[in-house]
TrEMBL record:
This is ABC transporter domain-containing protein. Residues 16-264 form the ABC transporter domain. One of its GO terms (biological process) is transmembrane transport. Coiled coil: none annotated.
Length: 342
């Protein structure tokens, strides 16, 4: 499916633009190639401006990580365009990608499993620089600088990842991502493997680095409380498609897509009285398989508002209310805030 543009306050020219991006994987039985192909990402369009944070949220398996991996070109899109700084990077070859990797970096969910246990921290952080051809001494100097920048002790450069806690290991992952002075970081669930108290520290660190270095983030998460705190805009994905995107304040105060409304109804409210009064929207069943998506609006089998047209006609992502910095893919978008808050 093709979605239209994205919404929200942005710079005139986005740093990153995805247009109608799809990613299809071969069928389930990989060895034989049999089974229906899986369209993990199905026509995603989104923009990220320089220096902003776009949150990408949705249930596990909705295609948000695949989208992130295509942006940093760990995966090649099947169709559609990915434009970074005015250049289509979606189908660049390995040699052309090399200089680009300086600018686009990724932070992964599980810090310990994403760091090579046999390498020292110095090597781990310096590796992107060595790959780009920096002399070893210069790369080590930069690694020490980065240790300090992310709140670690430079004298610990020769330690191994297992000698650090989960939060410290994530700081190492962030330091590594910063080695080549990128402009955009795709952070894929960067705090979900950490304790709650450590999560706050890593979020603080990411916010500080953004202010100091002017970074843009695509912040992928399923925890909407964290996203609310760190993001300027939010995009909600369901079964490979963006179903709602817009300014954070608007989406959180008055979610327009029934799926966004259900997700937000599960986020605990700080006020206990409001929390008791609030009605949770429990969706029936699990998301369908992307190998066999339902016709029409793919959310219709679980949607409390589904009507006949929803079963046959896929809604386009469009501005639901004139002049509003938010787009919704729904034939019957909500226009009022939820009765008891989100
Ligand atoms: Fe629900 Fe229909 Fe809107 Fe889809 S288009 S979210 S089924 S109301």
């Amino acid at each position: 499916m093709t979605t239209s543009t994205t919404a929200g306050p942005r710079a005139a020219e986005p740093l990153l633009s995805l247009r109608d991006v799809t990613k299809t994987f071969p069928g389930g039985r990989r060895r034989t190639g049999a089974g229906a192909p899986v369209r993990a990402v199905d026509g995603v369009s989104l923009d990220v401006a320089a220096g902003e944070t776009l949150g990408l949220v949705g249930e596990s398996g909705c295609g948000k990580s695949t989208t992130g991996r295509m942006i940093v070109r760990l995966l090649e899109p099947t169709t559609g365009s990915i434009t970074y700084d005015g250049r289509d990077i979606g189908h660049l070859g390995r040699r052309e990608l090399k200089p680009l990797r300086r600018e686009l970096q990724m932070v992964f969910q599980d810090p310990h499993s994403s760091l090579n246990p046999r390498q020292t921290v110095a090597r781990i952080i310096a590796d992107p620089l060595l790959v780009q051809g920096s002399p070893a001494a210069e790369a080590r100097r930069r690694a020490a600088e980065l240790m300090e920048l992310v709140g670690l002790i430079p004298e610990h450069l020769d330690r191994f990842p297992h000698e650090f806690s989960g939060g410290q290991a994530q700081r190492i992952g962030i330091a590594r991502s910063l080695a080549t002075r990128p402009r955009l970081i795709v952070a894929d669930e960067p705090v979900s493997a950490l304790d709650v108290s450590v999560q706050a520290q890593i979020v603080n660190l990411m916010e500080r680095l953004q202010r100091e270095l002017g970074l843009a983030y695509l912040f992928i998460a399923h925890d909407l409380s964290v996203v609310k705190r760190v993001c300027d805009r939010v995009a909600v994905m369901y079964l490979g498609r963006i179903v709602e995107v817009g300014a954070k304040e608007r989406v959180y105060a008055a979610p327009a897509h029934p799926y966004t409304r259900a997700l937000l109804s599960a986020v605990p409210l700080p006020d206990p009285a409001a929390e008791r009064a609030r009605e949770r929207i429990v969706l029936p069943g699990d998301p369908p398989s992307p190998a066999t998506p339902p016709p029409g609006c793919t959310f219709h089998p679980r949607c409390p508002k589904a009507q006949e047209i929803c079963r046959s006609e896929a809604p386009l992502l469009r501005v639901a209310t004139a002049g509003e910095a938010r787009e919704v893919a729904c034939h019957f978008p909500e226009t009022d805030p939820p009765p008891n808050g989100t």
